[in-house]
Amino acid sequence: MAMISIAQELQQNSYPGRGIILGRTADGTKAVCVYFIMGRSENSRNRIFVPDGNGLRTQAYDESKCTDPSLIIYAPVRVLGNKTIVSNGDQTDTIYEAMNHQFTFEQGLRAREFEPDAPNFTPRISGVIRCEGEHFNYALSILKSADGDPSSCQRFTFTYQNPVPGQGHFIHTYVGDGNPLPSFRGEPKLVSIPDDIEGFTQLLWNSLNPDNKISLFVRYIDPKTGNAVSKIVNRYGNAPAAE
Questions:
Q1: Cβ proximity of 56 and 215 under 8 Å
Q2: DSSP codes, 94-121
């Protein structure tokens, strides 16, 4: 698979929706987790990311304008021992509870399907990084309708053992803007992962569509110690990242 420019990919797509990037820094020393959200409606735009212990949660920026919290308020990131779980919905909790009871990432997601937001039927995208000493691996999943047909749920899991330094994989919910919104197709996209979290965070935020971007989370994890550095950027206000 040819590597693409993440900056160009985001700049050329006005509405990729919600996105996850998992990967490894160029120097090979850090596992990387990225999650971003975008929004078109007032309800979906009315959000910020806030730290929640060693995880992350969404929160209404203006509580008085939050008309339907069901699909917009959730924990995108949770940490379970040596595992960092990320997703675009409350399936983060489903995965967490399943893995906490010795089920696999994929088994946990068997209980879930795409979102019930007809006519879009937004895919549920999820990822997990598992650190084991100096080594780590990660997996990405997408649960999607059959080209808009909600009678069929299509399940895809992609696993990456001993990731190559400087490489990551990007998956997002929508091919682009539309009505209904067209679901992501194909394998996660191969992208470059730099060593500099500050520069990477700035690159991603500046590349997202200025009208639709809402919040961005970037975390670099030392697999040997579990120590992590995180950055949060919010369109409306901001929140300090948990170091």
A1: no
A2: HHHHHHHTT--HHHHHTT--S---TTT-
What is residue 2's three-state secondary structure? coil
Q: Where are the alpha helices (DSSP H) in 35-185?
A: 42-45, 91-100, 105-109
Contact assessment for residue 75 and residue 56, using Cβ atoms and an 8 Å cutoff? yes
Instruction: Please state, as a whole number, how many other Cβ atoms lie within 10 Å of the Cβ of residue 111.
Output: 12
Domain range holding 95?
A: 6-234
CA angle, residues 7, 42, 215, in degrees to nearest 5 = 35
In a domain, 64, yes or no: yes
Cα–Cα dist 10/4, whole Å: 11
* Residue 242 within a domain: no
For the stretch 172-204, pLDDT in tens is 999 999 999 999 999 999 999 999 999 999 999
Q: Is the pTM of this model over 0.85?
A: yes
Look at residue 239 and tell me if it is in a domain: no
How many CA atoms, within 13 angstroms, populate the side-chain half-sphere of residue 81? 11
Return the pLDDT at 238.
61
Residue 241, in any domain of the structure: no
- How many structural domains comprise the chain? 1
Q: Once rounded to an integer, what is the mean pLDDT over residues 227-242?
A: 80
224: Cα within 13 Å, side-chain hemisphere: 4
Query: In the 8-state DSSP scheme, what is residue 65?
Result: G
**Residue 127: alpha-carbon gap to chain centroid:** 7
For 202, the 3-state DSSP assignment is helix
